[in-house]
Amino acid sequence: MSETETQKVIIIGSGPAGHTAAVYAARAELSPLLFEGFMAGGVAAGGQLTTTTEVENFPGLPEPIGGPDLMIKMREQSVRYGTTIKTETVARVDLSTRPFTVTADSGEYKTETVIIATGATAKRLGIKGEEEYWQKGISACAVCDGGLPVFRDKPLVVIGGGDTACEEASYLSKFGSSVSMLVRRNVLRASQAMQNRVQKNEKIHILWETEALEAVGEQFLTGIRVIDKKAKEERIIEASGLFYAVGHKPNTDFLADQLDADKEGYLITEPNSTKTAIPGVFACGDVRDKVYRQAVTAAGMGCMAALEAERFLADQE
Ligand SMILES: Cc1cc2nc3c(=O)[nH]c(=O)nc-3n(C[C@H](O)[C@H](O)[C@H](O)COP(=O)(O)OP(=O)(O)OC[C@H]3O[C@@H](n4cnc5c(N)ncnc54)[C@H](O)[C@@H]3O)c2cc1C
């Protein structure tokens, strides 16, 4: 492959969305070039699943699979059908004229279509003990991890006061013995309906004006040192699970505002489609999805993006 040759499809990102797009584009004989990133957005090539131990909800895998193992298999499948992969982070793109220009360490690449699958990074709080207990009790995804045996019938804590935090607390109340929500202010930011749902749930307790200071434990998390800001008192609350619901940052800095995004930075596409406002540019997976944020939904959107890119190219001929 030469840098000067115009590609049919360049895929940026290497999570489930990027690799599914790659498999579909490769099988459609579009010879995709995929930039998998090098610690882009703070995540290894392979995306967010490389940061988790067990995935139990990806279809077709009756036994739990390690997140990194699942991503190695997806990568192998992409390569098997003819995807070229570069372990580089895309620094910038120029979407003002087609063919588009994609710039990475090894140079500039021209392409007829671009599929953006760069995912999102869960925001962290940086509290003491966070590194040590990340994935040993601390998680950024209640739907992914909440049902794991280590959290069943155990006291759980959610940090956040928005819709996601309320939704995650409700979900976790099915598994935990109790769920404490740490809310920084004395009000929830969530919609009234979500607030009602949380307040009616007997397992959920809201700790107002309370912030986490430290995650404590032994091999695994056992508690959180918190501060009650009103009483100015510190104490340790028991917790086997700590779930962050403080938002995600979509990985879009390299786009330099060339594509429409919502106020949280998620890319905007046409409804039920991965088409952005620029013909030939598609966005799929967590970089455009703040609702479902699952491997299987990201993969589904990756499939849509490749099919839409293929149809776009066919229409150009
Ligand atoms: C701890 C944890 C556990 C989870 N567990 C589950 C689970 O059990 N089941 C489930 O379905 N979902 C789970 N999820 C959610 C799931 O991981 C995501 O929904 C899914 O990975 C999103 O896929 P994606 O392809 O959109 O993006 P990502 O997985 O975020 O991958 C995007 C990739 O693009 C790369 N990238 C970013 N910018 C650039 C650039 N400029 N150039 C090149 N590459 C770039 C990133 O480095 C990353 O590797 C979990 C998430 C977390 C954080």
Beta-strand residue percentage:
25-35%
What's the SSE pattern? Answer: EHEEEHEEEEEHEHEHEHEEEEEEEH
Quantity of strands, as a count: 19
Q: If helices are DSSP runs of H or I spanning 4 or more residues, what is the number of helices? A: 7
Class from helix and strand fractions? alpha/beta
Instruction: Give average pLDDT, whole number.
Output: 95
User: What summary fits the major beta sheet?
Assistant: 7 strands, mixed
3D architecture notes:
- With 317 residues, the chain is an alpha/beta fold.
- It contains seven helices and 19 strands.
- It has helices at residues 16-27, 67-80, 130-133, 142-145, 163-172, 192-200, 295-316, and strands spanning 6-12, 33-35, 54-55, 65-66, 84-86, 92-94, 100-104, 107-116, 120-122, 138-139, 155-159, 178-182, 204-207, 210-217, 221-228, 233-238, 241-244, 248-250, 281-283.
- Strands 1, 2, 5, 6, 7, 8 and 19 form a seven-stranded mixed sheet that branches. A five-stranded parallel sheet has the order 10-17-11-12-13.
- Helix 1 (16-27) links the parallel strand 1 and strand 2.
- Helix 5 packs parallel to helix 6.
- The longest helix has 22 residues, at 295-316.
- The two termini are 22 Å apart.
- The chain binds flavin-adenine dinucleotide.
List keywords for this structure.
single chain, 317 residues, alpha/beta, seven-stranded mixed β-sheet, five-stranded parallel β-sheet, 7 helices, 24% helix, elongated, binds flavin-adenine dinucleotide
